[in-house]
Amino acid sequence: xxxxxxxxxxxxxxxxxxxxxxxxxxxxxxxxxxxxxxxxxxxxxxxxxxxxxxxxxxxxxxxxxxxxxxxxxxxxxxxxxxxxxxxxxxxxxxxxxxxxxxxxxxxxxxxxxxxxxxxxxxxxxxxxxxxxxxxxxxxxxxxxxxxxxxxxxxxxxxxxxxxxxxxxxxxxxxxxxxxxxxxxxxxxxxxxxxxxxxxxxxxxxxxxxxxxxxxxxxxxxxxxxxxxxxxxxxxxxxxxxxxxxxxxxxxxxxxxxxxxxxxxxxxxxxxxxxxxxxxxxxxxxxxxxxx
Length: 291
Fold this sequence. Notes:
The chain contains seven helices and eleven strands. It has helices at residues 27-41, 63-73, 95-102, 109-122, 145-157, 224-237, 256-265, and strands at residues 15-20, 46-53, 81-88, 125-133, 171-173, 176-178, 193-194, 197-198, 213-218, 242-250, 278-283. Strands 3-2-4-1-9-10-11 form a seven-stranded parallel sheet, with helices on both faces. Strand 2 (46-53), helix 2 (63-73) and strand 3 (81-88) form a beta-alpha-beta unit. Helix 1 (27-41) crosses helix 2. The longest helix has 15 residues, at 27-41. It starts with 14 loop residues before the first strand and ends in an 8-residue tail after the last strand.
């Protein structure tokens, strides 16, 4: 099975957060293609972590199981793959309302960070697939997948000192950044704060050589240009290191609109002084029938 993202890890670190412009844009297919690309790069221990899996009952297979199945079909051996979920919720909706219906507490963002850091210790490549889009909330404190990405960047860039712990997670509301100092979360490396107000993340944020990068998955259809630019602006505003954009559901017979959108996304205007590349396109239903 041809992998549309082969060779991509020349520009990616060994921890990649996969998020999307919306739900059902092809994040799971893109994550599987990244896993296969990692295997062909030479990574022999690959972990995929899904902080929250909604719309799942009992032991039904979730997105990480789909990633594993697609990766195995592309030749990645089962023993090379570790699949992990943070929390399962039964309703197919955003985590906070799904948790409320289930009557459970959402895991805090620090629990997801701890699991990812644990996986980093024993794997060559760690892929983190978010739920829905960039600003879907992960926990009761309204942290998002973007916050998780920034916090992971802070850990990865922190000096190797004992007791460093987990960095404080920066958050923004109405353009004003602030931190969770009252909850006792420590400050990210490279961040400056004035009176507990977050003023900036690691200076490498937004660069392709950051220790943790984010891949944004977009659809090729009508409306994707606005959704993609809004998502990239939100990520850049929060200090997320964006490695590039992947089209997650490229049609078998693209029309004029699809090709026009792809051409535009391949030549995006610079954000904060640097261009965000189009890393590739994953065909609809890559690896098996369309979904």
